[in-house]
């Protein structure tokens, strides 16, 4: 389309009012400018669009055909503007969050429950990935924000710590009793058991592997799974010793369904929190979410 949008805006106004003078007042431009624009548009399309008379202007058959499409286009634009104004007034926006399935269940969802009450018109999408994968997506600007374990090194990421978490090893009393019957003392349970860990893509696993290496703990049998809920359930059926986060097995520890295996030295606590790319333009939705979790942590 070679013609500028302004020509069609003028054409639409003249056709709607049937009068150049009224169109000029509506558009706040002069009548000669209106006439010149109509003439230019007629030259560009190669046909007469209006018939002029003392009572005003009327569309030619060709003008009627063009007006049908122009009218539809401007009505669509008007609808779009109305929807945009409503979305701004309601605070409608989009927010994409990356998080591991474990942190999503135990940490993110409680936050979102309260956030949605305050901002019900923000559309939220959640992508469940490991912390390492979430960090890559944040670096590539494919996510707005992520809930992650604090990485050791990050360049372009702003990290806001929520709280500390503690990794522990748990098993059923029956499983530990069977280890004892085999003559294994409690200080060597990890080396002589089936150990259930998250897979190597997960930052938690990397953190635990560093603990093993620093303390010269050599492992025998390992089962790898992709999420912590499986580790907890597998530990509860005496399949082995599971590495889990203390906060997420409080109920099982209190009921005696699982027992914690004392470690010397214990695994150091680590931080989890929200992170986003400092180079992105912060949307209104992300701004609301940042304000929300910062206020919630006070």
What is the element layout, followed by pairings?
Elements: H1 5-17, H2 20-27, H3 31-45, E1 50-53, E2 56-59, H4 61-90, E3 93-99, H5 101-118, E4 122-128, H6 131-139, E5 145-149, E6 157-165, E7 167-171, H7 173-181, E8 194-198, H8 203-214, E9 221-225, H9 228-236, E10 241-245, H10 250-255, E11 259-260, E12 270-277, H11 284-296
Parallel strand pairs: 3-4, 3-5, 8-9, 8-10
Antiparallel strand pairs: 1-2, 5-12, 6-12, 7-10, 7-11
Helix pairs in contact: 1-2, 1-3, 1-4, 2-3
Structural notes for this entry:
The structure is a single chain. Strands 4-3-5-12-6 form a 5-stranded mixed beta sheet, sandwiched between helices. A 5-stranded mixed beta sheet has the order 9-8-10-7-11, sandwiched between helices. A two-stranded antiparallel sheet has the order 1-2. The mean pLDDT is about 90. With about 300 residues, the chain is α/β, with parallel strands linked by helices. It has 11 helices and 12 strands. α1 packs across α2, α1 (about 5-15) crosses α4 (about 60-90) and α2 packs across α3. The longest helix is centred in the N-terminal third of the chain and has 30 residues, at about 60-90.
